[in-house]
UniProtKB/TrEMBL annotation:
InterPro entries per the UniProt record, alphabetical: Glycoside_hydrolase_63, MGH1-like_GH
Segments traversing the membrane: none
Domain Mannosylglycerate hydrolase MGH1-like glycoside hydrolase: 67-370
Pfam families xref list: MGH1-like_GH
Organism lineage string: Bacteria, Bacillati, Bacillota, Bacilli, Bacillales
Alphabetical keyword list: Glycosidase, Hydrolase
Protein name: Mannosylglycerate hydrolase MGH1-like glycoside hydrolase domain-containing protein
Classification via PANTHER family: MANNOSYL-OLIGOSACCHARIDE GLUCOSIDASE (PTHR10412)
């Protein structure tokens, strides 16, 4: 009987109000893709439930059905454009999972249970970006002590050799050597060895810089100075210990000081650092990006270089991931390579659009050579004959961060990309 009291038109308008704020693009096909991106994001936004006291986000409704640390940050970056207070809910929901030790689990369920590992530390970046839209100082005041404790936990528990570089937790599962890194089955981890990790160290340095920014905004110069110094030290260590001059690339390093030599997309992450990178290193990284022997494929950026012996279509062993493209895009802009960033954004949008128009969904990842459609890519083994995500986790459809970061690329570059295309530059 309660349902009879609802005004159908009013209810429909309320449900559709979310979409009224989507930016308008000149290209109708791109507008349709952008609308799809936000539809995926809306579907993967959930109401408070159990121990999660406000709205939160999930990577997908099936199979993950939980809240994940770095995923949630990526989700906020596009949501900031439509509803920044909703983005804050996403972030607060993750911040609230902090344990007494300071650790924040990589995954938390509504019943309060969570994992024993963490995930890439991107939360301070997410909080700062959200603040740029909300200007809610109370949010910064709430987040700062949590972010400090979390970064302190990372620095205390993930630097076993004390050299300022961080190491991901390594697990025993050959199909998921390092779920903590988010790059579960990357060949970086095939030897199951503990490594000073390029990406972990960069994320830590970068988030320390954002903690310093937050502290400055809250007029806490001592805290800001502390975290600036931490960020600077980690950045110097990355430049000193993880750069291979012979290869012109950043690699992980084992505990004996040997470079891993597995060339992966993680090697581009130092582009994100605030500390000035020598121009010759930027040039050599760009050379790797455009080298067909390593990373230049139809759809960049391969998660593992095509020169690696185990390159393929299985998750982090070759396919393109939108989150890594977005991070490299961001790093290229930071290093003054706007044209390279614009080209990467344009190709990435085209890739997602191509398969959206064929399948009507936005996929978790894509074959960098574009020889295999996403449903046929491996995901910790070959795909099942019949798509049934509840029985076999094949490439996930309508994946939240793919949608969010594609939307970011479209909103951030649409005008510039249109201008460049008209000039024949792309």
């Amino acid at each position: 009987m309660e349902g009879l009291a609802y005004d159908a038109l009013e209810t429909a308008e309320e449900r559709l109000r979310f979409y009224r704020h989507i930016p308008k693009l000149a290209d109708p096909a791109e507008q349709q893709l952008l609308n799809k991106c936000f539809s995926v994001m809306k579907v993967n936004t959930l109401a408070s439930e159990g121990t999660i006291k406000q709205r939160w986000s999930t990577p997908d409704r099936v199979p993950h059905q939980a809240m994940w640390l770095w995923d949630s940050v990526f989700h906020t970056l596009a949501m900031n454009k439509l509803d920044p207070l909703l983005s804050w809910d996403f972030l607060k929901s993750v911040l609230d999972t902090q344990q007494e030790s300071g650790m924040i689990p990589h995954m938390t369920k509504v019943d309060g249970s969570g994992s024993s590992i963490t995930q890439p530390p991107l939360l301070a970046w997410g909080v700062w970006e959200n603040y740029c839209h909300t200007k809610q100082r109370l949010h910064l005041q709430y987040a700062l002590p949590i972010l400090e404790r979390y970064m302190t936990w990372n620095l205390s528990n993930r630097d076993r050799n004390g050299n300022g570089l961080l190491e991901w937790m390594i697990e025993g599962n050959p199909l998921c050597r390092s779920g903590e890194s988010g790059m579960d089955n990357s060949p970086r981890f095939d030897r199951a060895a503990v490594l000073d990790a390029v990406d972990f160290s960069v994320f830590a340095a970068r988030d320390a810089d954002f903690i310093a920014l937050i502290a400055e905004e809250l007029e806490d110069p001592e805290t800001a100075k502390h975290w600036k110094e931490k960020a600077s030290y980690i950045s110097r260590q990355i430049e000193a210990l993880l750069w291979d001059e012979g290869e012109g690339f950043y690699f992980d390093r084992d505990m004996d000081g040997n470079m891993s030599q597995v060339r992966a997309v993680s090697g581009f992450m130092p582009l994100l650092l605030n500390q000035t990178m020598p121009i010759e290193r930027i040039e050599r990284l760009i050379k790797n990006l455009y080298d067909p022997q390593h990373f230049r494929t139809k759809y960049p950026i391969a998660s593992t270089a095509v020169s690696e012996a185990t390159y393929g279509t299985d998750m982090w062993r070759g396919p393109v991931w939108i989150n890594m493209n977005y991070l490299v895009y961001t790093g290229l802009i930071k290093q003054g390579r706007a044209e390279d960033a614009k080209q990467l954004a344009s190709v990435t949008i085209g890739m997602v659009r191509n398969y959206y128009e064929q399948y009507g969904v936005i996929f978790e990842y894509y074959d960098s050579y574009d020889q295999v459609p996403p449903p046929a890519c491996y995901r910790k083994g070959p795909p099942s004959a019949t798509y049934d995500i509840r029985r076999k986790m094949d490439v996930i459809r309508d994946y939240h961060w793919s949608a969010s970061l594609t939307a970011c690329l479209m909103m951030e570059t649409s005008q510039r990309v249109e201008e460049a295309a008209s000039d024949g530059k792309i």
